[in-house]
TrEMBL record:
Pfam families: MazE_antitoxin (PF04014). Residues 3-48 form the SpoVT-AbrB domain. One of its GO terms (molecular function) is DNA binding. This is AbrB/MazE/SpoVT family DNA-binding domain-containing antitoxin.
């Protein structure tokens, strides 16, 4: 999708063009997530942010077929680290 020019309104409001809203499946009142990196503002939905995080941790998911609790693993790691403090 190409870049479009828009205006900054009163109170810092930005109008997101219809094509962009439709592409992101945004409706009035939907929550969105903004973050800034290198002076660029990124906009995403909560669902897209969740999918991005899920993809990042996908490589760390248990593939042994055994039930593993990540919470228990973290507690065990912290207890082992505490032994050497």
């Amino acid at each position: 999708m190409k870049a479009v020019r828009t205006k900054l309104g009163k109170g810092g409001r930005i109008i997101i063009p219809t094509a962009f809203r439709q592409n992101l499946h945004l409706e009035t009142g939907d929550d969105i997530i903004l973050h800034m990196e290198d002076n660029l503002i990124y906009l995403t939905t909560a669902e897209q942010a969740l999918r991005t995080l899920q993809n990042k941790v996908k490589n760390y998911i248990n593939t042994t077929g055994q039930d593993i609790s990540l919470t228990d693993e973290l507690i065990t790691m912290r207890r082992n680290e505490a032994k050497y403090e």
